[in-house]
Amino acid sequence: MALFRNRLASLLIRAAQRIDGKQQITIPAGARPVSTEQVQQAMNTALNHMQQQENANNVAMGPGLPLQPSTGFVSPTGPRQFQYPAAYNAASLPGSGKLTSFGQLRALAASYEGIGLCERVWFDIVQRLVPHVTLDPNVMPDGESESDPKWQKIIRPAYEWIMTPDRNQPLAEWMTASVRDVLQVGYSTIYKQRNRLGDIVALELIDPVTMKPLIDDRGRTLPPPDPAWQQYLYGAPAGMYTTDDIAVVREMGRSESVYPVSRVEMIVLRINLALRKGELDLTRFTSGAIPEGLLFLNPDSNWTPEQIIEFESMLNSMLAGNDQAKVQMKVLPSGPQNFIASRTPDPNLALDTFLLNITVAAYGLTMDEISMTQNSNRSVGESQEAILYRRIMQPLANTYARLFTPIIKQRFDPRLRLEWEGFEESQDVLTKAQALEIGVKNGALSPSRMARMMNWPVDLEVPPMLLTKDGPIWLEDAINLRQAQKDAGQSNEFSMGAPGNAQNTPAPATAPSAPTSTEQTRADWKRWYAVAVKAMKNGQPQPVFRSDTIPAAEYHLVADELAVCETADEVRGVFRRAQQREQRRLLPIRKADIDEHRSVYPGFAAQQQLQHEAEALFHRIEEQALHSSP
Questions:
Q1: Were 586 and a residue from 55, 298, 369, 581 both cysteine, which residue would form a disulfide, CB within 3.0 to 4.6 Å?
Q2: Digit-coded pLDDT (tens) for 463-491
Q3: pTM above 0.90?
Q4: Contact present, 21 and 48 (Cβ < 8 Å)
């Protein structure tokens, strides 16, 4: 327990030391930071306990005790992430320790045309991505659109900033350069340029070859305010930056190194083999020593070396560059006997195809994507397009959406986020539409919301509904009906049978009855009830309701009560009390009586005690009115 307290105190002290001096953390009295000697002592205690257990159990051929930890290798805060080189932060340049240096990776990518073809496909995909700054789910109410001026006022500034993230290059060119760094080197480093207020105004690409990650004693990235990156220029150390200054986009991280693995680095051996194969083929056509063929003479011929050279020169000069002579019959003297072709007509293309397939697979593509089609049809094309979507488009869009979204939330509005359009898989679009259609039929979504989620134009605002064989049931009407039943003290269950038949049965009043019994008055009370509840739910002030049938005194009473309501339940309580007054056949309270006691009556608030006092006051006024009436 004492060791635990010491370690906790050490963590608190370390956290206090990382604060810029603006805040202070009070360390409990008597707490001391844990030291390396204390950690060593705790380990020795554990080893002694293990030895005692083994001796007490009389274990034969037991596992024995682990070796004592070496001095200086035990960190009080935990084990090292990996075995980094000694003095890594001080002695090494960016990329040192990698099997293939950054310069070699760049050179290999530039030399092999297979990588160029694959990168071109990736860059074309980047050009297809269309940024779409939108709102988080459930932010925009039903019936509203992102094209509305009030939402465009929020969305438009973020969209314009993303279109030129570094205030220089268009977004497509900026992302192409960033993706190229990720593919070749393994990661892309981005400097967050800030203004004097601390807001991020630009994302500037920095050559990752010049940036070196810095680590702490455990091999982990240093958190702010400690520097996590240092730039090296011309072999000399330059500026140091924190993780708040540098953003990193990477694909494949590693636990055994601070540097990720790039797609070029994965196939270094195959790239070298392809380059050597290409060099061999080039040498064959430029400096090759193998002739087209060999013509042997009859052993009985007595040709001298001079005659052989003269005949060879005459025959080659007669056929070289003369296509007509090549197809004509030639009469040779009796000396030449046999002709043997000495080289194959074409290079070995099977090896080239194999190496190109390896490269294409490493980049998540197919041969059809780089226009190397052999056996292709519509079905194969659709399946390969699905592979391209799942392996490249969607991961690429998610990666850069995670980069931009926190920035636009921090700088512009916390309700914004970035999505990408122009790349969705056709099969996924159909699946998404079918899933949303189920939600519309079950009433979970409105048709208008489904259209927006599918990025379709909304021609008409349609509320949520349940589709039955007898027609739709509008959920808003069903909710109002249930609430009216609860307010009237009736059963909360709807009529048995098909929902469509339930609509044809006589329904109870959707609002409490008015003090009069005419149908027109009932209709006005129903409309007022629905309008008041809807306004409260939407957070809007109570609108002025016009009615020629509701008595003036009752109208002013209800209007005054609605003016001080704060929740939908309080609004329902106003109409419930109006219904109770009608059921008791009480006279309506005059507005003058309310004005007289306004200093006592606190309004219909959420506090139950005040409501009871107000009800008792009303009852006394009503009784006085009854006794005074003729």
A1: 581
A2: 888 877 777 888 887 787 777 767 766 54
A3: no
A4: no
